[in-house]
Amino acid sequence: MKNHEKKDPFLxxxxxxxxxxxxxxxxxxxxxIAIDTGYRHIDGAYIYQNEHEVGEAIREKIAEGKxxxxxxxxxxxxxxTKHDPEMVRPTLEKTLSVLQLDYVDLYIIEIPMAxxxxxxxxxxxxxGKWLYHKSxxxxxxxxxxxxxxxxxxxxxxxxxxxxxxxxxxxxxxxxKHKPVSNQVQFDRRWEGRGxxxxxxxxxxxxxxxxxxxxxxxxxxxxxxxxx
Length: 227
Description:
Elements: E1 3-5, E2 11-13, H1 27-37, E3 41-43, H2 51-64, E4 73-78, H3 85-99, E5 104-109, E6 114-115, E7 132-133, H4 137-149, E8 153-159, H5 163-170, E9 181-186, H6 193-199, E10 204-210, E11 217-224
Parallel strand pairs: 3-4, 4-5, 5-8, 8-9
Antiparallel strand pairs: 1-2, 6-7, 9-11, 10-11
Helix pairs in contact: 1-2, 3-4
């Protein structure tokens, strides 16, 4: 399976299964089959609510001798209700506890906007309106940098960021660790292709997949931010 080299000194597998909306109780088996098939990059998230199953699959395959921990590239995500700096490390530590792993290979801010802090994944008011929250992406990023320095994560990235939001972090005074990736949904309606290509600094690696909650096919891309 093809690997892609990041600025950090290791490789990550380009193709990944996405355990989003996997039927409850089936994720462990699905991930084990994926590993047996040759997949090594697993794209998970707190809001998928199945990281315990993913972790079980990884541990079983390690116990079988099929893979070593360093063979698996696990990507986790910081959800929008956990952007406050004091919530970042406890949230990552909870993910590690659920996975029963010592570290994740990549940890990304899942979306640039924030919801009301708390354990409710999709907070809404009594009228069904989203409860948004003012956050500071640079402060969130600094908390993530501290997690990397503590050895809880190998690399940091973002997801669904536009150019302005990405440059906000890249131009942050005192930046210690650059985002190595920007994971975005891509479909034929997206109009930003020319802008990214014209910059000539972000090669995009596309993965064809089916988004189960929608009726059209999409391409998930993991974009590498060059230095």
